[in-house]
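Lab meeting, item 3. Inverse folding demo.
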């Protein structure tokens, strides 16, 4: 199971668009995927056609412990893609959590048993580094940072890094930043090129090779309650998110090789045991 938080405390950088479309692309490739909407604005839920005004069960009830994750999770129109929605109730959770014991791990604690059913768990974080985001960072092993490929792209990144280091040291030593997505890239402007170069200079090989181009279909698809793959499968937006998703999957081959190298002696022992028994 891979668990990834899409995080950046700036709003409007492409977190929700990336969570929705990477999730959809993974599911269309046959993976079992759980999306968690951790933003009270509930844009991810809207992206999958959830009527957020009807105030159905949401992540808020999981945080409160009044409902089990199994009761809250819902299927989307894409097979293999499940969603734990959010709604505006979540905006009070941040304050309510302040006085809760183990406040950074409440969601992990209440959700943990369900996560192992999935190949991928993707969390769409709110645009802040508050308690909801900290909760996300104790659940996942990976952070992916979407950046808007605009002049102020790197503003706030050092604060995000400090938070990452702190959580890694205190609460989740497995946490790693595994990718940076250049979003809303405009290849026709000098600024677009310059900012992309700056992002690559700063983050080096952490930057995905696929930059997500500006594409109007990507901004239209949420209002139709659909990810880009079903709303406009031939658009550049769909192509870019498909290419990015492939890169994310390919990271596994690399990690797997590394893990194999690290566990090689143990693996050898178990092979010997097997051959003696047979
Ligand atoms: N590549 C893109 N091209 C055009 N519009 C985009 C693109 N990515 C995101 N958007 C739009 O920009 C706005 C902000 O994106 P969003 O993913 O909601 O950001 P965040 O979740 O970080 O606040 C949304 O209206 C979204 O539809
Ligand atoms: Mg968002």
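The presenter then showed the designed sequence:
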């Amino acid at each position: 199971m891979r668990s990834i938080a899409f995080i950046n405390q700036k709003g409007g950088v492409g977190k929700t668009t990336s969570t929705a479309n990477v999730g959809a692309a993974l599911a269309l490739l046959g993976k079992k995927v759980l999306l968690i909407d951790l933003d009270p604005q509930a844009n991810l839920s809207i992206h999958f056609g959830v009527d957020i005004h009807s105030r159905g069960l949401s992540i808020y009830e999981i945080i409160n412990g009044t409902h089990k994750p199994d009761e809250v999770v819902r299927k989307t129109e894409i097979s293999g893609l499940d969603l734990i929605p959010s709604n505006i109730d979540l905006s009070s959770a941040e304050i309510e959590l302040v006085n809760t014991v183990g406040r950074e791990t409440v969601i992990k604690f209440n959700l943990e048993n369900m996560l192992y059913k999935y190949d991928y768990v993707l969390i769409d974080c709110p645009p802040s580094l508050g308690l909801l985001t900290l909760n996300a960072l104790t659940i996942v092993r990976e952070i992916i940072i979407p950046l808007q490929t605009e002049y102020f792209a790197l503003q706030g990144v050092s604060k995000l890094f400090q938070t990452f280091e702190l959580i890694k040291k205190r609460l989740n030593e497995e946490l790693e930043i595994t990718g940076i997505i250049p979003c809303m890239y405009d290849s026709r402007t000098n600024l677009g090129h310059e900012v992309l170069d700056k992002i690559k200079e700063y983050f080096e090989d952490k930057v995905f090779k696929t930059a997500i181009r500006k594409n109007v279909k990507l901004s239209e698809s949420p209002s139709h309650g659909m990810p880009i793959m079903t709303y406009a499968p031939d658009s550049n937006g769909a192509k870019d998110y498909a290419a990015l998703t492939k890169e994310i999957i390919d990271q596994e081959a690399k990690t797997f090789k590394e893990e194999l190298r690290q566990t090689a002696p143990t693996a050898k022992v178990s092979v010997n045991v097997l051959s003696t028994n047979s």
